């Protein structure tokens, strides 16, 4: 999960407060934090420190590699691991170079007098006597880059994927050789690319820095590993067009390559999804109906609807009913009627009436299979070069949807909307692309009072 719920965030905050207690069992508390959020890189790194102090160096190393995988753009775990492995000098140098490179991308750390790297004493390393932090660590990073000339092949191979992520983090546009290097890495680099998305979601990257996550989405789509689908669905629901556009492209690309595997992943997570993610899956089914030959995925999209926000539930339900009928044909009519009987109590009286009318109108139609939309004209190379205007693509998509709605007035014409009051970590309703808590939360709260 990239965006944690308010409940999880509040529980983590309380546990973090408990860490400062005089008699706190720090290891037990850190493990509770990781039970709530297995990808909390700070908790992983802090627990690694405790393991190291206890003499469990192998355990500490394993935790630090996990911390790096969860947040590959964070500099501190690279530094910590380099210090832990300083006796393995070539590997430690490679890790510390990565720590320097990511530190140089962290504007807050560069400006914070309390945030700094702690250098390791290497022979012939440059003197770090520059007054500016940026100059010091740039000089060391460049020197460490030069050490790669004598680096053992095993170290180069061990760090190859992390160095790709560093280039992704530092470069707005990716050229074809770099994209090809990611594609060659294949599924092995998928956890790190998802980690880049997590870094943006957790504000490790600035909200304006959409290029690294957008390029990560495109690469995930082209690699085609269905295990990335849950993370992609979260990003595809965001307001910034660069992220939602790349997210929808990535989702469609994975489904096109591995339809049945993608359907299995979607079916597993469907009951836990919000309305926006369920509708994204519905769009995939309309484009690739063969991915769900037995209708299992369609039925699972209706499960646990009580967890869907009531403000979005009615539109979501109607769209899913339409999906069942359009994809399954005449048998889908019975599926739709059954779902309405089973879940009707969760809907308003008006929504139930509209669903009945919609099913009746569908029953009078020949119900020919929907025409598949044209495949995307964009390639992963064009996306990663920044050649796609996702805002323009979104306008085209909305225009096409309006035409379809005019032709088929039984299909819901209103787009799905976010709740009037978003969650603290949801995108703000104003369309700024910022999280609600960093945008209109205080203003709305003051107005409400």
């Amino acid at each position: 999960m990239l965006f944690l719920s308010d409940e999880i965030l509040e529980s983590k905050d309380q546990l973090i407060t408990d860490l400062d207690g005089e008699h706190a069992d720090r290891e037990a508390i850190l493990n509770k934090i990781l039970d709530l959020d297995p990808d909390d890189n700070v908790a992983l790194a802090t627990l690694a420190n405790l393991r190291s102090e206890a003499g469990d160096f192998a355990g500490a190393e394993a935790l630090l590699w996990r911390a790096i995988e969860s947040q590959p753009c964070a500099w501190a775990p690279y530094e910590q691991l380099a210090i832990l492995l300083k006796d393995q000098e070539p590997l430690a140098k490679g890790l510390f170079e990565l720590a320097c490179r990511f530190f140089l991308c962290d504007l807050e750390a560069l400006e914070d007098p309390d945030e700094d790297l702690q250098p390791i004493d290497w022979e012939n390393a440059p003197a770090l006597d520059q007054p500016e932090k940026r100059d010091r660590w740039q000089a060391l990073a460049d020197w460490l880059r030069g050490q790669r000339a004598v680096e053992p092949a095993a170290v180069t191979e061990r760090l190859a994927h992390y160095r790709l992520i560093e280039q992704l983090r530092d470069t707005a546009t990716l050229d074809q050789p770099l994209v090809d290097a990611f594609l060659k890495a294949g599924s092995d680099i998928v956890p790190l690319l998802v980690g880049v998305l997590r870094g943006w979601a957790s504000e490790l990257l600035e909200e304006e820095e959409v290029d690294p996550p957008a390029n990560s989405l495109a690469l995930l789509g082209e690699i085609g590993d269905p295990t990335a689908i849950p993370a992609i669905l979260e990003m595809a629901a965001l307001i910034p067009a660069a992220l939602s556009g790349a997210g929808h492209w990535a989702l469609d690309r994975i489904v096109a390559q591995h339809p049945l595997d993608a359907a299995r992943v979607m079916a597993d997570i469907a009951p836990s999804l919000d309305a926006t993610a369920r509708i994204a899956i519905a769009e995939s089914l309309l484009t690739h109906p063969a991915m769900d030959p037995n209708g299992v995925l369609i039925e699972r999209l209706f499960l646990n609807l009580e967890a869907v926000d009531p403000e979005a539930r009615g539109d979501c339900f109607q769209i899913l009913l339409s999906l069942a009928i359009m994809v399954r044909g005449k048998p889908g009519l019975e599926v739709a009627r059954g779902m309405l009987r089973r879940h009707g109590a969760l809907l308003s009286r008006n929504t139930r009436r509209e669903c009945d009318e919609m099913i009746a109108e569908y029953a009078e139609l020949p119900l020919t299979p929907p025409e598949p939309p044209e495949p995307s004209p964009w390639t992963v190379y064009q996306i990663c070069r920044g050649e796609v205007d996702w805002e323009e693509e979104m306008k085209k998509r909305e225009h096409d949807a309006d035409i379809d709605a005019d032709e088929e007035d039984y299909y819901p014409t209103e787009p799905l909307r976010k709740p009037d009051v978003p969650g603290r970590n949801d995108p703000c309703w104003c369309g700024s692309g910022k999280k609600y808590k960093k945008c209109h939360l205080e203003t709305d709260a003051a107005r409400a009072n």
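The longest helix spans residues 310-328. DSSP finds 23 helices and no strands in the chain.
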